[in-house]
Amino acid sequence: MRGELIIETRVDERDLISTPNFRDDLRRRIQVETGISSFRQQLLLEDKIIPEVCSWESLGRPQEIRVTFQQSTEDFSAELLRAAEMGDTKRVHDVLERFQNPDCKTTAGETAIMKASKRGDLDILELLLRAGADVNHTAENGSTPLLVAAEHGQLVVVRRLVGAGADSDLARADKEKAFISHDDTPLLLAVDCAPEGGRPEVIRCLLDAGADMERMNSRGMFPLLMAAHEGMYDIVCQLLEARANVNQSGSDGLTAVLAAVAEGHVDILKRLLHARANPRTRLNNGSTPWSIATSMSFDRRHREIEAVDNRHAEILQCLRDAG
């Protein structure tokens, strides 16, 4: 039985001889040419299935291979999900070899690629990508593989997902709602989690991928405001170097300058003012950096701590110098 010719390619004989696993190499070539997952391909030579481990020479140097595309007749989804969660690379490979759909999911909508992203398991991630797993799949809680990887600081996985076409601005939202701007994006999660161990490399990767620095989460916070509020000087500098809008305001008018003043972050205030932040910015209620810095509530909260008193005086001086 002969099928339709779907790919014809010339390969240097030296490459074929040097390839230790002829079957997998050929399947990858076919996937590149056709977009059909290598795990769905069954290679036949004279109507016999080509074994998993073989060389071109051991097969007699064939010039023509027949390919059939398969779908699983059994459901191995639970096995695949469990193997991905446990980090069992061999088991994941074996299940995918049975033509299992890589996008099978739990009752909460979590897929194997999301489990691998959370673990930072690049080997399993690569297998799932080869099988055609959806890098932008959204679970019931709105999570995506990239959101999960960014939240857990999995830099290598973040890089691979971005390279595989993951949307760096796809926001976490309820499935019943549209993806709206006031929700968590991978960049927001990376900044939000920075105090728990630092995510500067993840943030850099997302910025290089063109992540939107002006997207706000459900609290009206955006990356620069979040970093300024939490006192993350290095992250503030990183965002400013990437040309973040230094005067962007949240839903209540809160800007990075106002947050730095309110929280007493002198170094961040200086860096923002150096980047030409507006020192006269106002909250929706009319409060300004100067009024916040000179308020009685600010003084009462910190008066007992001499170091904070000095910081307070320095903030006032910064605002005076900025006009």
UniProtKB/TrEMBL annotation:
Keywords: ANK repeat, Repeat
InterPro entries documented for this protein: Ankyrin_rpt, Ankyrin_rpt-contain_sf
ANK repeat placement: 108-140, 141-173, 219-251, 252-284
Domain of life where this protein originates: Eukaryota
SMART domains: ANK
Signal sequence region: none
PANTHER family xref list: ANKYRIN REPEAT AND PROTEIN KINASE DOMAIN-CONTAINING PROTEIN, ANKYRIN REPEAT-CONTAINING PROTEIN-RELATED
Record's protein name: Ank1 protein
Organism of derivation: Symbiodinium pilosum
